[in-house]
Amino acid sequence: MSEYWKSLPRKFCETCKCWFADNKASIEFHERGKRHKENVQKRIHEIQKKGLKEYKKQKELEDEMDKIEKAALEAYEKDLQRSSGQQNSNLQQNLKSLDKQISVVEQKANIEKVINAALRKQENTSPENKTELVETPARKWYEAMTDEGYRYYWNIETSESRWDPPEESYVILEEQGIQNAENKETDKESPEDTPSLQNEENKDSNDVSSCAVGPQPRIDPYGQWVVVEHKEPVQYDLELPKLPENYVEVAIPVVKDEEPRLKFKEKTIGQLCDGDSNEEVTFKKRKFNSSCKKNARQRTIDDD
């Protein structure tokens, strides 16, 4: 067999960044050394610093995420309150418009009853009275009163309303009350002519005050005063996951990173020259002795 050369195995230290012989004695000698121990302590300190920085960054990120979640929950609650408030306001507006329409329909029904009663009265009267009634023109204007007590006048054909009394003749409130009373009497005398449903409608319409006839004009352009109601915020179930009963919060100790304080030492240096000598300190040039040339190779004749 041929002989070959094999080098000794070597090992690399990651902390010290150096190579040494890979045997037990060399490894123990290196690990017991002062330099290796200092490098290990530095490495541990760097790892601790890096871990503290990462922990602080993670804590800041968690705090920011908590703030974002709280802000999102508050915005969600506000949106829910706003949507519920809008629905309530829309319902109130719809109810008000329905009430107005119902009141207008009831007023028209009252006026139609008054006209029908007048026509029935004309039919029941004598022919002489009939001629007189025919000759008198039909009154189109009716007097009415608002909820605040103001009088206004309403035209049954054109649905026009005005504050000043018209030039034509109009039906005053007293006449309307008399005609309503006569309507009630005629309804009691002839129950067979009208069905039961019509009687119920007459009762409901008679309950309404005879003063309110026609659409009421708007008095105040800015509307009426409304009392502001302070409503408490509604508590909504956000359906968040519940914590377990045996849940215990883990308290993480905060490690304070104390910076090492630098200590400066003063070093005193003695004088280069004696205190008694008055000579100045100067640097002397080196003198090359001839003995130095003896070490150099002398030129011989053979060099030529």
TrEMBL record:
It comes from the Eukaryota. GO terms for cellular component: precatalytic spliceosome. Residues 141-168 form the WW domain. It is found in: Nucleus. GO terms for molecular function: RNA binding; zinc ion binding. InterPro entries: Matrin/U1-C_Znf_C2H2, Matrin/U1-like-C_Znf_C2H2, U1-CZ_Znf_C2H2, WBP4, WW_dom, WW_dom_sf, Znf_C2H2_sf. This is WW domain-binding protein 4. It comes from Stegodyphus mimosarum. The lineage of its organism: Eukaryota, Metazoa, Ecdysozoa, Arthropoda, Chelicerata.
